[in-house]
Specification:
single chain; about 375 residues; alpha/beta; Spore Coat Polysaccharide Biosynthesis Protein SpsA, Chain A; 7-stranded mixed beta sheet; 11 strands; about 10% strand; globular; binds 2-acetamido-2-deoxy-beta-D-glucopyranose; Glyco_trans_8; signal
């Protein structure tokens, strides 16, 4: 299976040459690297075109980020790794960068944190963006085979939820290398304002997943009338105390997930959804169907979610009371877009300090 042969992109050499040519148009710093590669191509015309690109027009949709400082371990740190997985998508890159910065900045042992990024398309400019923004970051990038899930996705109420990459979290146990036995999965629209090690160290007590649970939320509403009126389907949660949880922040026992064939279980529910509409949202409800009431509950401080407002309008929300370790702009509104539009919500100002985006850098001038 192609999926198992995932080779992490560890360096430039693993990128195909046509992509290298593209890099030249992103940052001046890497132009030399690419030119060396270009020299191996026989077509001088290509090299000339690229050269003109470097001077005249930077690629418009590639954000340019400031370099983050180097974060060092404190004296008391051991060598234990903390594995964090996130998806990589050029549309959410600004969010990812802010999330990474926030994690490192609040971490007592930042050098112990290793990132495992999943992407569905090779985007070399994204790779170099991370490399140049966080020169000291321990990270690997894996290809998520979008075709594996594409045919299984049903239309939800928000198009952004239907992106294959949104479903990558279901396949972590197939994608991550064997030495990653536990992983924290995080969405790209979060910032962490506490030491991530505290979440990492949660005792899973034999459960496959840990996440904050929200038992006051009306669980009924996540599924359709069709689901609840079906005599078989409506028994799904019998013998459990199902509560809503958000899949944007989860601690996963990767081995248990693999052994328990949870990927298959989630996929099975997606297949049911294809046949009859049993829920409204995207990748979240099949997780609820399999795992609601079966996970280890984590303090709510680890997912102050919904800051992006609802799924339709993205209205402003205020913070829920209580201590906060992680802020999550789930919902339609994203802080970087609202800040750019000059109509930010109050909570967006909590995201802004982690924004590494440099709107007006002139990278191509001498
Ligand atoms: C939960 O939502 C369902 C469907 O909208 C509704 O019928 C039910 O009364 C709600 N329950 C509570 C406790 O609010």
């Amino acid at each position: 299976m192609a999926f198992r042969n995932n080779t992490p992109i560890l360096g430039l050499l693993s990128l195909p040459l046509p992509l290298l040519l593209f890099i030249v148009t992103t940052t001046r710093q890497h132009a030399t690297i690419s030119v060396a590669a270009v020299a191996t191509t026989p077509t001088t015309v290509v090299t000339t075109d690229v050269h003109l690109d470097v001077i005249r027009k930077p690629v418009p949709d590639v954000p340019v980020f400031r370099e983050a400082p180097e974060f060092r371990n404190g004296d008391t740190c051991n060598k234990d790794r903390i594995h964090i997985s996130m998806t990589l998508d050029s549309n959410y890159l600004r969010g990812t960068m802010a999330a990474v910065l926030s994690i490192l900045q609040h971490s007592e042992c930042p050098e112990n944190v290793e990132f495992h990024f999943l992407w569905s398309r090779y985007e070399p400019q994204v790779f170099f963006s991370i490399k140049s923004t966080f020169p000291y970051l321990k990270f690997k990038i894996y290809r998520f085979e979008a075709n594996r899930v594409r045919g299984k996705i049903s239309k939800s109420i928000r198009q952004a939820l239907d992106q294959p990459l949104n479903y990558a979290r279901i396949y972590l146990s197939d994608i991550l290398p064997g030495y990653v036995q536990r992983v924290i999965y995080l969405d790209s629209d979060i910032v962490v304002v506490d030491d991530i090690a505290k979440l990492w160290e949660v005792d899973l007590e034999g459960k496959v997943l840990a996440a904050p649970e929200y038992c006051h939320a009306n669980f009924t509403e996540y599924f359709t009338d069709l689901f609840w009126s079906d005599p078989v389907l409506s028994k799904t949660f019998e013998g459990r105390k199902p509560c809503y949880f958000n899949t944007g922040v989860m601690v996963m026992d990767v081995e248990l997930w693999r052994e328990g064939k949870f990927t298959q279980k989630v996929e099975d529910w997606m297949a049911v959804q294809k046949q009859k509409r049993i829920y409204h949202l995207g990748s979240l409800p099949p997780f609820l169907l399999v795992l609601a009431g079966e996970l280890k509950s984590v303090d709510h401080r680890w997912n102050q979610h919904g800051l992006g407002g609802d799924n339709l309008e993205g209205k402003c929300r205020s913070l829920h009371p209580g201590p906060i370790s992680l802020l999550h702009w789930s919902g339609k509104g994203k802080p970087w877009l609202r800040l750019d539009s000059r109509k930010p919500c109050a909570v967006d100002h909590l995201w802004a300090p982690y924004d590494l985006y440099h709107a007006n850098i002139h990278h191509f001038e001498e």
